[in-house]
């Protein structure tokens, strides 16, 4: 890949996309192929994910008669979750990334269209978000004695 580590390659890819005006997921096909291979073959990674990935896949495919559109929907949902993580990684100071409106189009149509509320909340909690109310998730900046200070 050229760099000393996969995480460095990924970071460089994200920075290239940002310089092009696209703060989004990494589009490098060779890096995506390497990541795909790791996701498929690395059983230690499967354990580290603590079955979350499998739960998300199962949730997104459960009861779907036609798998092709269900898989496309899951791919879009994973890209949107990755995009949220990328925004926090590259631009953590940007105020617009501190709140996720759970009534927004992307959340309702892309995420909730294929994943349950419980799994979505669990995924966003791993990024540092907490449920503020029934319409918003907010980024939690610190925890002390079980309390979370939320910036609004």
Automatic annotation (TrEMBL):
Domain (Spermatogenesis-associated protein 2 PUB-like): give its ranges.
70-134
This protein is called what?
SPATA2L isoform 1
One Gene Ontology cellular component annotation?
cytoplasm
The record ties this protein, via PANTHER family, to: SPERMATOGENESIS-ASSOCIATED PROTEIN 2-LIKE PROTEIN, SPERMATOGENESIS-ASSOCIATED PROTEIN 2/TAMOZHENNIC
InterPro entries xrefs: SPATA2_PUB-like
Q: Which Pfam families match?
A: SPATA2_PUB-like (PF21388)
Similarity field? Belongs to the SPATA2 family.
